[in-house]
Amino acid sequence: xxxxxxxxxxxxxxxxxxxxxxxxxxxxxxxxxxxxxxxxxxxxxxxxxxxxxxxxxxxxxxxxxxxxxxxxxxxxxxxxxxxxxxxxxxxxxxxxxxxxxxxxxxxxxxxxxxxxxxxxxxxxxxxxxxxxxxxxxxxxxxxxxxxxxxxxxxxxxxxxxxxxxxxxxxxxxx
Length: 174
Description:
The protein has four helices and seven strands. The protein has helices at residues 12-30, 38-56, 60-63, 83-94, and strands spanning 67-75, 79-82, 101-105, 111-117, 120-136, 139-155, 158-171.
């Protein structure tokens, strides 16, 4: 009895398609770390601390040490900022209106990808989506949604946020 693949064994297109499928499968099975790993939990915690201190509580003193000195922030509507500009923007735009804005992570969207050099962990990429709330008529209302990508660097056993891409900002709709 002939194999199912026998008629396709000489097909160049079949071989190309099989290669593409196997390539993407290999990427998917190795890429993201499991949500139960220490790396995932650590970076989820760091994400929470960053936004709790920056957006929700305006605690710049706790935020600043978590950010790399050569930090870069790329925002699809706000442009590019370094660490100093980023912290000043938070003070000016968020801290001027205390308890008026919050940010919430969409937990199911969070992904973490380790970055290694010769098998040694030196950083990680964190992707996800988050929503933004604004106080309207005395109540917080979800007004926006966006994607983010963070590059975290591990140096001297400390995680520092080095690069941020904040993009795809749009009004929130359920």
